[in-house]
Amino acid sequence: MIADKIHISERFLAVRSQTEKICEPLKIEDYVVQPIVDVSPPKWHLGHTTWFFETFVLKPNHKGYQEFDSNYNYLFNSYYESAGARVIRTDRGNITRPGVEEVMQYRAYVNEHMREFLNTNYDERLESLIELGLQHEQQHQELLIYDIKYILGKNPLFPAYSNNPRAESSDKTPLEWLEIKEGIYEIGYNDAGFSFDNEHGYHKTYLNDFAIANRLVTNREYLEFMEAGGYENFRHWLSEAWEWVKENEIEAPEHWHRVDGQWHHYNLNGGLTAINMDAPVTHISFFEADAFAKWKGLRLPTEQEWEVACLNFGLIDSNSNFSESGQYEPVPSQNNNQLNGDCWEWTASAYRPYPYYKAPEGAVGEYNGKFMVNQMVLRGGSCATPRDHIRPTYRNFFHPHLRWMFSGIRLAKDI
Amino acid sequence: MIADKIHISERFLAVRSQTEKICEPLKIEDYVVQPIVDVSPPKWHLGHTTWFFETFVLKPNHKGYQEFDSNYNYLFNSYYESAGARVIRTDRGNITRPGVEEVMQYRAYVNEHMREFLNTNYDERLESLIELGLQHEQQHQELLIYDIKYILGKNPLFPAYSNNPRAESSDKTPLEWLEIKEGIYEIGYNDAGFSFDNEHGYHKTYLNDFAIANRLVTNREYLEFMEAGGYENFRHWLSEAWEWVKENEIEAPEHWHRVDGQWHHYNLNGGLTAINMDAPVTHISFFEADAFAKWKGLRLPTEQEWEVACLNFGLIDSNSNFSESGQYEPVPSQNNNQLNGDCWEWTASAYRPYPYYKAPEGAVGEYNGKFMVNQMVLRGGSCATPRDHIRPTYRNFFHPHLRWMFSGIRLAKDI
Amino acid sequence: MIADKIHISERFLAVRSQTEKICEPLKIEDYVVQPIVDVSPPKWHLGHTTWFFETFVLKPNHKGYQEFDSNYNYLFNSYYESAGARVIRTDRGNITRPGVEEVMQYRAYVNEHMREFLNTNYDERLESLIELGLQHEQQHQELLIYDIKYILGKNPLFPAYSNNPRAESSDKTPLEWLEIKEGIYEIGYNDAGFSFDNEHGYHKTYLNDFAIANRLVTNREYLEFMEAGGYENFRHWLSEAWEWVKENEIEAPEHWHRVDGQWHHYNLNGGLTAINMDAPVTHISFFEADAFAKWKGLRLPTEQEWEVACLNFGLIDSNSNFSESGQYEPVPSQNNNQLNGDCWEWTASAYRPYPYYKAPEGAVGEYNGKFMVNQMVLRGGSCATPRDHIRPTYRNFFHPHLRWMFSGIRLAKDI
Amino acid sequence: MIADKIHISERFLAVRSQTEKICEPLKIEDYVVQPIVDVSPPKWHLGHTTWFFETFVLKPNHKGYQEFDSNYNYLFNSYYESAGARVIRTDRGNITRPGVEEVMQYRAYVNEHMREFLNTNYDERLESLIELGLQHEQQHQELLIYDIKYILGKNPLFPAYSNNPRAESSDKTPLEWLEIKEGIYEIGYNDAGFSFDNEHGYHKTYLNDFAIANRLVTNREYLEFMEAGGYENFRHWLSEAWEWVKENEIEAPEHWHRVDGQWHHYNLNGGLTAINMDAPVTHISFFEADAFAKWKGLRLPTEQEWEVACLNFGLIDSNSNFSESGQYEPVPSQNNNQLNGDCWEWTASAYRPYPYYKAPEGAVGEYNGKFMVNQMVLRGGSCATPRDHIRPTYRNFFHPHLRWMFSGIRLAKDI
């Protein structure tokens, strides 16, 4: 038990400090803004993840704990109706105080009290809640990277977040099809260790024969779609997708820019740079992934197919490109069939509850279940996901028009 | 073959005249307006269903056919990108010419040429296209009824569409649970006769043990939810549903009005009337159906569960309440487990393609497939559905916030 | 007094029947719709003008008068906060009942009771109120013509309202400048007879030397502006005007259409027709009038200048083109310096109260004063104005972006 | 001439450093955001005022001048169509780079080159352009104060900008009426020294007898209006004003908050504080000023009346409360009839060109003239206006619904 306490305390501090590390290259100005509703100010992420521990762990459980500032519940609650009133989401980018310094003090204060709490009157029954807080913080680490990329990438100066040398890869993994036989398979989380409620219950599913691609669609392949007039032909697009294309004048993935007739893209590393044609295409919406697959005469895998394929072929490869690489961009496939890292993969499945799904009681019950409509499931993690955060059963979800995250395409087909 | 020609010609005229019969009680003024984007002017329905036959059957196949008016393609195309430019949907209610008289002349002209075509140079290979046109017209008959109800029901005078005596039913079917055992089941259309592309392919699915209610949720039961504060408690609602409730100040089903402290509802028959508490609740959105089920500690069935249950218990009951009854309102259950008629039943399933689904080539390929995102499946037909239009495999679909149609709730649960 | 009673009774019926005459060429369908917020359904105009007499004259003054239908106050109130709740303006085009027939019965009923009232217990003190009702109805006659033109002119079939032979005029009045000397002038209404509150008080104003054009700007002159790139050069435009041009992709006056490379316009008489280049340009916004004048190096007259010029040169010419001509379109100038008829003339003046202005007590106090912000004054009447409705002191007003009415340009300059 | 060069060089640096002084109390975070479209980020003001000198003075006139950064034209152009593309106004708050430090370097760089230019190859013919740049910067100093107040005052923490002791005034100036006789008066700028184009031409105007209040309306008087139900009674309001009140749920001036049942307001000095009832009411829209005056049975003065009264009674009083006081809030009147300082005073006049008005050629011609529609004139300067920036002829203008600036009410009446 002592060992466990040490473990959770260390893990707590490791996760918490990683969040701050992600923000290190930022200027104070970068912490404040919210250019679109989906992007939150980095300062808000820093406060909100801290508020989670203060609100759900310290205040109800740590005797004698003094709230850092009674206004912070209002400022840093995200969407927990159970937790009271909050700044409306679109106003997050208008809030300049508390400043970055005060938010960092808030983090230090809560960290110190968490450390104290974990080392003294910690109750094992809280372990899953604390682990939820850490997983939650890891999710926000990933969102932070998307949001920082959006904030800097939409700036007319295209400032780089980092300027590291980029390993020039010349690998070109040929497309191969991995086959799965029809039958009953079992999916969903069924293990010890942490998992989200939406990965339950563990259940049977029937799959038909199908094949899934051994790698993600590359920038080169996607550019072929663009050059074949993919964005101009309604036949490839869902009806709402076509409206979205027209209304927003979409003609390329997010963060792509035509410079002197050549497509470039904004990367956190290096700013505006030439596109590596062998790397996976990313920053595309479900609408685009679906249109691309239709244009190819293929389709996206369902999340059931994806999970079964992952369990059969993928397993999380330790060479996969997760956030630990620190480069925050997809890289060309290393030919090892990994189904993880680089980009979240849009599936053909709408985000709905599994059989036997029950949302937990209390505020944490608002974590996943209430979003189960009008969104699509993505699988596999990305170059902005911490390696120890992802599992084959992990269900991510976004609205079908969104694309500021690292999203990509893995193709499938009937056989 | 001669027999078939006669048959299709008769069926053609029968379906076509039914559309006009639905409009008979209208005043000319009622044919013109579009109070919300989802409602089309009755005049437009009359023209659009005719345009379908002119555009897809007569013009390409009936030698020497002279188009009635070259402007009508622009006026009466709904959403077929393949068929050229069209009046934008929100403008349909601003178009006063052609008037009802001209549209009726257009119908007569196309009917006459279709009759001629079906009796002379008719090619059997067109049968499925013509049948599609008739099924399409039946769908618009149903929409016509919804739209007429909306146009009259939102009028401050609450004019009645009909004033027929209403059979006072005192039947109260007790709620019973019909059970299905876990296992592999086959669903989807697998028969001769007409079906839509979205009912294919016929495929296996794995179901867990479950039970489904023998009847729809009644107005009485729904009122309990309302009186228990159902519309004020975020805990029952999906996040987007809760936003919808707040933004639109929803507090009761569509067409409900509080008169002197008592809930009434607008019915086509009789106008504003007291609510029959034993009749199924209707005009509710998926958001409300889902919230009600959660409040009950139950859930909606998936479409797979629904279809298997229907095949096991329901079969289309000849006593079910379809449009042939002419009363266009749900009635108390007659205790026969029918899963058809009265109200379309919201399922827990998002509208996505079945395994092996392929959209047909050409303009008719735009019929179903392009709507397969952000919508939910409904099953079973309603009091506005023609009896010969419905099948156990029939997949209807609407956005989760819509409720101007006859939609209702059948509950399910794990066992 | 008897004479007066007869006079007002006759005048009442004459004005009322003129409203109905304007609607005669309409189909029932045309009476119902509201394609933009500024356009009201003709059926609504018919009801609203009747409601004015029922609400302000009959109900408070005619003993024993029975309201026609208690719902009509809600249906036909326009903007009188004092008169209770009302259909929100944007919903007027969704109201199909009462139908045209019932509204005509409502008119007949109120007419009959007004006739009875005027012939029996009529109180002279009500004369100005009744006259206000008649002037109000004449204003709605003019709006009816604009609205009918918009409803038919935006229909893809461009149906004609009338098909009368059009006198081909070859008159080309040369532009001349009428000069006024600087000094103190008196303006505003100062006579017996009817006038609106906004024409008061009669007051002194100081004018500098100026000159005003003897005729309106013609289509030929306006086309020169268009062909000189007037709509593409921000320099001519007010800032809000330029935003309006860009956002709405304005490139010609309202109701102009390019057919096979030639500009045509929709006219009530004849439908889509070639443009008479010698006729005054019409259906332009203040934004366009102001931009045209700036492009010419000239300006619009202030309303004070206009009124003084009118009193000096114009007087209402009995040959001017008012609604009695029944042709409802501007015609080439007959070289007589008339400042009335054809088109309302945008002035440089914002619509604000005159010195000493006081709004009347009661509901009629809502008639003019509450609109005195963000609108511009127009003067002179149009081809849709009844001749006996206009005066040199008459102040019309519209928002600067509107142009569905007969509006035009008279130029002025400093000398 | 040497003397003049020294003078303009000193004045240049004095004005420029005042801008920076205003920003001194800010945190870096405060410089970045744009909570509403009317508020610009302080960082943007700092850059934009500098861009003015770089673009209009240095680049065209200072030989060998190297642009600081070629991206800055795009970033810091406000609305000059002549000066090329620019960040759309609503996006200003999403631009984090250049940061405050770089913008300050930009200021220093341009200051240094301006100093060099003014001391060497300066051409007297540029004097009026440079003075325009300085007046422009003073206008932005005032906007900076409004915007900082909005950014801090809408923050849930209500941080104070300063915490200086506040002189408790117990002065209560009784309301007196200053009378002006009817006659011809001359207004507009007619002097040496700087003035804006919109103050020209100097011209005659006719005024009737009127009286104007000797002081602004106080918070106490305004609260009486509120407590008399002023915000709930449509009769006091212009039609568009009433819509604005309802839609925005307006019930008090901007920056007022009810704390424990007592009205407080946010002040730059001290944050959320009790209201000094003797101080002038401020942060009200024209709509509110007009409604208040109507409720009193009085009216606002026209700008002609105001200017004549100012020339007769007011003159700019050296005791008036301008920005030099550094307290940035209106104070109780010192009983000296001053018509300047404290609050801009809404007049009854729409902002339109004076007789003989001509916009200058070139980009500076976009300064005033293009805004002359849909705005109202305000007079007199405020507690955020530099004393040497204001004149009796100075015409400020805002849209009638705006109120984030220091705006107030001076009453007038006919006599």
UniProtKB/TrEMBL annotation, chains A, B, C, D:
Designated gene of the protein: egtB
> Domain Sulfatase-modifying factor enzyme-like, which positions?
176-413
**Species whose genome carries this gene:** Fulvivirga lutea
Pfam families cross-referenced by the UniProt entry: DinB_2 (PF12867), FGE-sulfatase (PF03781)
Residue limits of the DinB-like domain? 12-142
Pathway field: Amino-acid biosynthesis; ergothioneine biosynthesis
InterPro entries, per database record = CTDL_fold, DinB-like, EgtB, Sulfatase_Mod_Factor_Kinase, SUMF_dom, SUMF_sf
**PANTHER family per UniProt:** HERCYNINE OXYGENASE, SULFATASE MODIFYING FACTOR 1, 2
Taking the record's annotation, the residue ranges forming a coiled coil are: none
Keyword Zinc-finger on this protein?
A: no
**What protein is this chain from?**
Ergothioneine biosynthesis protein EgtB
The GO biological-process annotations, alphabetized, read as: ergothioneine biosynthetic process
Q: What is the lineage of its organism?
A: Bacteria, Pseudomonadati, Bacteroidota, Cytophagia, Cytophagales
Q: Which terms are listed as keywords in the entry?
A: Iron, Oxidoreductase
